[in-house]
Amino acid sequence: MKNFICITCGVQVESSMAAPEKCSICSEERQYVSSTGQTWTTLEEMIQSEIYKNMISLEEEGLFSIATSPSFGIGQTAYLVQGKTFNLLWDCITYINSETIAEIKEQGGIDAIALSHPHYYSTQVEWAEAFDALLYIHEDDKEWVTRPSDKIIFWSGESLEVAEEMILHRIGGHFKGATVLEWKEGEAQQGVLLTGDIVRVVADRQWVSFMYSYANFIPLPASTVQGIASRLEEVNFTRLYDAFHRIIENDAKERVQKSAERYVDALNGVHFRTEAL
C-alpha cells in the first residue's frame, strides 16, 4: 500500500495498492490534468531520487518561508509563523524529509498547521504526523480532503483564533472555505496577512488579484470580490505574503482595497473599454 502523490498538484491521497485513475483535485475546473496525462509518485520516491531540497529562509523576525528546489507540483511556499509559545505552519508543500524536520525542530517545531485551500493540502498528513501537530481546515472544504486523518480539525464560522495573535479568517472566493491568516505580531506588531493565493500579489508587487481559477483564467464575480474586500477591511495588516513568495512590504491593506475596486470596475466595464467600434 502506498500514499500516491499527484505530480501535477503535489497532493497526496489515501493509501492504495495501485495509483488512482485520476486526481480529484486536478480533474476539477480550478486545476487541470497535465497535457501529458495523469502521473503519480510517492514521497519515498522523491526522497530516494535525491533531487529535491527544502530551502528554509528567515523573512522577518518570527517568520520563515519554506520552499522546495527544484519546484514541485504547483510550487507554492509554506510559512512557519513563530509565536511566543506556539508555532504555526501556514499552508503545506509536498516535500518533507529528515533534514527539513530537524531544521524546523531547531526553530521550535510545529504545533499546528492551517490551510488556505485544497490546492495546498499536499502531504499535510505527513507534516502533521512528523510534528504531532493538528491540522486546521475550514469545514466548507471538507470534501476536498484526499487523505483523512484524526489530526484534522474542521473548523466552522468566519474566524478562529488558533493561538494568541494568530487568527484564521474564512473569506471565500477561490474556494468556499478559502482562508487567510492574520498574524497580529508580524511586522513589529503592525500586522501581517498570509493569503495563499486567495489574494494573489501581481508582478509589480503594488496590486493584488482574485481568481476562481488561476490555471484556467476564470475570474470571480464582482460581488464575491466586494465581499472579500469587506471582510479584509476589518483585519489590521500592513504587510502581505502570498503563496508564491510575493510580498507587499508596506500599505498592504490599502493596496488590497484599491485592487478590489479596480477588479470590480474591470468586470463591470467601468475601468476600461476595448470593444471594437
UniProtKB/TrEMBL annotation:
SMART domains in the cross-refs: Lactamase_B
Residue ranges of every copy of the Metallo-beta-lactamase domain listed in the record: 75-239
Transmembrane segment boundaries: none
Origin: domain of life: Bacteria
UniProt xrefs under PANTHER family: METALLO-BETA-LACTAMASE FAMILY PROTEIN (AFU_ORTHOLOGUE AFUA_5G12770)
Name used for this protein in its record: Metallo-beta-lactamase domain-containing protein
Organism the protein comes from: Planococcus shenhongbingii
Upper lineage: Bacteria, Bacillati, Bacillota, Bacilli, Bacillales
